[in-house]
Input
Amino acid sequence: MKNTILQPRFKDHPHFKDFWTKGNGKQLIDFSGAEVSFKDFEEFSSYFYHVDETGDQVVKDIYFTKNFREASKEMEQYIRNGISEDENTPQSIKQMFLQTQTIPEWLDYGLLKSGAELCMRANLDSLISLRDYCLMGGYDFAYLNKPLIITEALKKGAVKRLSETLDFWVNVTRYDALKPHHKGYEFAIKTRMIHSYARLSIRKHYKDWDTENWGEPINSWDMMATYIGFSLVFLHSLHKLGNAYSAQEEQGLFHLWKYVGYLLGIPEKLLPDNKKQATEFFYMWTSIQPPADKDSVLLAHSLLNESLENPILKYEFQRKNLRYLHICCTWFLLDDEVCKRLQIPEVSGRKAFPFAKKMINKIYNRIISRELRIRKGNKDQMKVLKDYLRITDNSVFH
Output
């Protein structure tokens, strides 16, 4: 591709200006104390055309030279047992695993523990935040969604897609999960391989990919934005739902996702340390994203209707009620303009459930010990994950 000089092309468009002057973007600035500008735009925008070349080469060397079962078995051996410099393996494998096995000097296991505890302690509010703010809000960025559409995520179905996201999130946010060769580490490396496999497949099979406008498929700058969703946007959602947290927990959450990003091959420069930095990074990135398009609406409604398709709840009235509650939370957590663009249905009494939840959380935070909330949150989240994995193991969802 010819060298493209990217501009903050949507900075004067209504969707961008409204978000940052009166919508959730304005709330994020107030929430974080960010000083947003485009002074570093050129420095960061080059990552729109940057990808994880090491991960891509691993896929070429392992997954494209063997059948999938053999390749997966070989990769699991590396993940679980590690690798040394003198092993007889492809250079790409050595490069990736020697990087991910090396503990960066900045890593603080105490902060990882605090971040994991916040994720568990927020219990089902964590899952509401992931679904109704992070995932749903992400669908408003049209270019970000193109890999999902092209790899036919809609055909897979929202139940399966949500199950995979939940499986990843839960497994990287438990105690000690990210130590080399532990479960969260394994999920990070496997997710990195999925990204590279999807990127190479898009490049090979989808000739109409618009690199100049959409960036490289699953590029490093889009990856940064996705993981800001798991940190900054997630934290903002917990705040909006009335959850209290300490400065240590807040710092720990950003530290946890910085390390997950490091394992996934995202350049360290793109991984924010705190909410101020994350908001400033996010501001620049949103200026290259147009608002929701027809694909965004399809993804949003697929997620909304997941509640109706999901057999975890036995009765239809339960599924309809769950869908209604998610719609209420979506309107509460996202800007009205975003909800309208995504064609989220208007429902009556939509403020009642989120406001009741907010009040209950404030009381709950005061009267229940932190340790008990962590234990209960972990137990409840693991049960939800178990239910999803049980129903998505059924061939109907593959």
